[in-house]
Amino acid sequence: MYILSEKDYAEQSAFKSVNNFFHFFAVGKALKRAGVYKTKGIQAMNIMLYLTFLVYSGKTMNRDATGKNPVIGNSKDAVYRLLRCQRVNWSSFLLAVSEKAIAFTEKLTSETRKTAFVIDDTLYERPFSKKTELIAKVYDHVDKRYTRGFRTLFLSWTDGASLIPVCFRHLSSTDPKNRLVPEREGRDKRTCASRAKREAVMKAPDVCLALLAKAKHFGIHADYVLFDSWFAFPSVIAKIKGMGHDVTARVKNSAKVRYFYDGRALPLKVIYDRSKKRRGKSRYLLSVDINLINDGEPGIPCRLVYVRNRSNRKDWIAILTTDMNLTPEDVLTLYGRRWSIEVFFKTCKTYLRFTGEFQQVSYEAITAHTTIVALRYMILSVEQRKRTDYRALGELFYDATDEAAELTFHEVLMMIMASLTGALTKGSVALDEGAVSDFMAAFIGGLPPFVQRLLAPDLTASQQPL
């Protein structure tokens, strides 16, 4: 007799969830749209299903691909061919899947609830790699040191309850001197991989705009764009505003960046010193209306909200928004949603094998693997929303409530009265009509007044209570 262990049951349950996600969100169509198709061996859809599920099984591909796997068997070469394929547009694939996941999530969100894009980067570290294509010397702001790797810039969508990764780019250094390994020669410059490498050596603010343009092309919309002070340049804010998005971001306390306030171009510190602060235990210290200075001229009207720095109570942080209809409290609440992308980075690095799962050295293979990691998180985000939001049960909830409302309280009372009258006239001790009428009158007279009012229109004159 075969006994299914708890681990096997959990693995089968996880595989079922991943498989359902692939079919419900049409991952196969997204692969075809991205230029993925079978040339030989097993189907690309099965490879993607296997790679996405691999982390939930708790195994690595080298350990699992022993010929017994029902999805790919021992076809490791087919997996590596897919990861290294230059013609695959992985950005298009992730955008297509995220568009459907966002459409599903928006059904569970109120129409009045504001949505936002969140932009941030994280360190993709490969400290011992000497052959990884376009790997560069990057600065680790956590450990305060330089290391080998990339800055991975992510664009994500959030409604405050769920976060869906939309697209990303691994950024190398813009300075060729800091690139430890150059781009491989002899590659076709017309491929999707070559276009991705050209973006990899661009400046981060320019890549931010490119990612937003891709999301807009795929029909993914958000009301706001949230980011940290690394990208909060007036020129970038003005360009994002021109794309139809309002910006809410933390801004740098720099003397070089000035804002038009009180008829003059002033830095943040001077604006704070010249303004009257709020007293008491207010949620914010100061709120002032300013104008961005772009190309030397006052431009977009904005609102600055100063809040106290939790790390240093004597210091402050400035949050800027281009939506003048937001109150200072709304600005702080909205900017707080940016923290969801930090949770995303932590989850990917701790649980979803963001680094270290494959030791591929080509840039396209690294991009393919990061796409799979983002897909894994998207599955978790959708599953979490389905299990915590009762509206995700769909028509079952509405069918149950409609069925419960079919029988009213009045109808149930009349059914009980009819059953009681029948028992008195047809039982083993049958009563005549006069005795039944007297009994019913006495019975109804003892009921609460609101019940008597419900029964009165349906009773005969002899049965109506006095």
What percent strand?
A: 15-25%
The SS-based structural class is: alpha+beta
Number of strands: 11
What level of helicity do the residues show? 40-55%
Order of helices and strands: HHHHHHEEEEHHEHEEEHEEEHHHHHHH
Structural shape: flat
Keywords:
alpha+beta, 3 domains, 11-stranded mixed beta sheet, 17 helices, 11 strands, disordered C terminus
Describe the protein.
It is built from 17 helices and 11 strands. The protein is flat, with a radius of gyration of 32 Å. It folds into 3 domains: 1-222 and 351-396, no CATH class; 224-338, no CATH class; 409-458, no CATH class. Mean pLDDT is 85; it is low at 460-466. The protein is α+β, with helices and mostly antiparallel strands and 466 residues long. It has helices at residues 6-24, 27-33, 44-57, 61-64, 76-84, 90-106, 192-200, 204-217, 234-242, 268-274, 328-335, 339-350, 363-388, 395-404, 409-426, 433-445, 449-455, and strands at residues 116-125, 136-140, 145-158, 163-171, 224-227, 246-251, 259-261, 264-266, 286-294, 297-308, 316-321. α9 links the parallel β5 (224-227) and β6 (246-251). Strands 1, 2, 3, 4, 5, 6, 7, 8, 9, 10 and 11 form an 11-stranded mixed beta sheet that branches.
In short:
The chain has helices spanning 6-24, 27-33, 44-57, 61-64, 76-84, 90-106, 192-200, 204-217, 234-242, 268-274, 328-335, 339-350, 363-388, 395-404, 409-426, 433-445, 449-455; strands spanning 116-125, 136-140, 145-158, 163-171, 224-227, 246-251, 259-261, 264-266, 286-294, 297-308, 316-321.
